[in-house]
What we know:
Layout: H1 5-21, H2 23-33, H3 38-56, H4 65-79, H5 84-98, H6 107-125, H7 135-150, H8 155-172, H9 196-207
Helix pairs in contact: 1-3, 1-9, 2-3, 2-9, 3-4, 4-5, 5-6, 6-7, 7-8, 7-9, 8-9
The chain binds adenosine-5'-diphosphate and magnesium ion (MG).
Amino acid sequence: MVVDGAVTLAWLQRAADALREKRDYLTELDAAIGDADHGTNMDRGFTAVMAKLHELYPTDAPPEPSAMFRTVGATLVSTVGGAAGPLYGTAFIRAGGALAGKATLEPGDIGAALDAALEGIKMRGRATSGEKTMIDALEPAVAAYKASLASGADLGAALRAAADAAEEGMRATIPMLATKGRASYLGERSIGHQDPGATSMALLLRTMTSGGE
Ligand code: ADP
Ligand code: MG
């Protein structure tokens, strides 16, 4: 499979569809330890993203992935309030930066983009793993992706390893005490609930595993 602008655009559409489908679920998770808006935030953001991409670029000849990711990031920053917009926005802008000038992506390029996204989120949120955030899904996913490629796996298998690790990381947020974001205001009462941002992150990574192979 060649990962080009068209494959990237199809992935973003699947991501938008999945976030729409899981909107209420993500909002319920956020109702337990936040302010019940994560699903609506992500759905609003990705609806705006798809509208912007269709406005800017011809669907039959989308530009290189880098340009699209920068547009995605800027749109999320400007349309999603709260913590998740700037965090996901930074992730996509950084991923776009890591892919600059590449019309097609090799598996290693996708690893570099995932690394850049993770670093961007950590920097922007001043957070690290174990704080009950989206980082707890993304960090193990990036590690699993790179380990899978290093062991000789192809792109599809590496992406599946990443999505599996993200889901495991997402479930591992349940017993964690939140120390960043709104959930941290609850202190000990944040324990026992799955983090909404880790859940949307796992969902996005899962949508990367289908549709192109
Ligand atoms: P808000 O908390 O402003 O209502 P959302 O509900 O859309 O924003 O997103 C909440 C999610 O954002 C959390 O579940 C968590 O995963 C993530 N998050 C919050 N603060 C941080 C942070 N400092 N670093 C990383 N992720 C964070
Ligand atoms: Mg919220």
